[in-house]
What does this fold into?
Amino acid sequence: MIRAIRGTRDILPPETALWNFVEAAVRDVFRVYNFHEIRTPIIEDLDLFRRSVGEETDIVYKEMFAWEDRGRAESEKGGQWLALRPENTAGVVRAYIENRMGERGLLQKLYYIGPQFRRERPQKGRYRQFYQIGAEVIGPLAAGSESPAVDAEVLALLAALLNRVGIRDWKLELNSVGCSEDRPRYNQALRNALADTLGKMCADCQRRAVTNPLRVFDCKVPADQPIIEALPRISDYLDAGCRSHFAALRKILDAQELPYTINDRLVRGLDYYTRTAFEFTHGALGAQNAVLGGGRYDGLSEALGGPRAPGIGFAIGEDRLIMTLGQSAEAIATPPDVYVAPVGEGMDPEAAGLAEELRRHDLVVELGNESFRLKKSLETASKLGARFAVIVGENEVKSQSFALKNLGTGEQVSVARGDLPKTIQANRT
Ligand code: HAM
It folds into this structure.
């Protein structure tokens, strides 16, 4: 038997009803914040992720699904390296540059919903194909893209999104990770601090300490944690600009009474971040407790060869969001209003006609089959959770009056064809 590949899974009904509920709700929140949807390809040039997410990150170093495409021309040796996107900020910023989206001088407020791919070790809440609901705000400096007010609005949007889908007990962890001005000083401080203890650390950390010391904070090896805990704090190395940006953001959040805690160990596992970095956690998730993460990336557009275009965004793990909902899919899935049961030979076309008529009245209709006996039709209707069954037999067709059975109460009445829609609608819950 061929099975779904490791780390991927099928999302089946009725659970898909939950996914649709969440997606419809978040689209509605994005709408009132004046965000617009962007759809970018799932496959991109591998270099895009190397240059944005970063060579030394676990995502790029260990978790990419990447392959060398066939040569573009017969004569060409080797092909382009392609990758399944592990995240979507890089793709959105590439699209921003490529489509010159900053030219009108406005902030671009974009959102996306879609699959991402990382070759991680699968466990509860961690998949190789997972889904993100994300947003990016990016634009030229003159559009106000660097303002802490944008950060505050993005965080307010997130709180609204979570509240809207019914998640209340989230926690916002906030930090500033500085910028390209102060990062070299902090990297040097990390290298100095690591100089004596590095030999005792894992091979990954030994490599990271040389190439990209900030990535040491991504280490999960238990033995390394006491060393990492003693490292200098990024908050002590922020320059004046980053400090005042962070202070201004906090002032707005405080005024809006948006609760947060400062976590000065939060550096996020992607290289493009500058200044504001954040995660929202939820207790119900256990070890993989980050339901979403995000931050600023003021230098990313330029790093990808684009114009100066500061930005900030986030991505919610949709799989995890749905895990925290605690709402049962059955509760929100809509069962059929009515099961149309043809009884007797030649009744299929009559039943099909009636089913179409009822659907035009916005009723959810399941159509039976004349090969079923009445008993089997009624059993099927009950299994589906239909509220009513309408019986289409020869007599009913002749009189244009149909037996309508309430499957909850067992009560059966005869209803004129034209009165069926309103009779069924009146009993909708
Ligand atoms: P990230 O922290 O790598 O950030 O991912 C965001 C969220 O995606 C995580 O908090 C988690 O909920 C979910 N997630 C990540 N990996 C998996 C997985 N293997 N299985 C299930 N869920 C997962 C980003 O991707 C950035 N692009 C966010 C961003 C947007 N920053 C700025 N703009």
Q: What stands out?
A: The mean pLDDT is 95. The chain is about 35% helix and 20% strand.
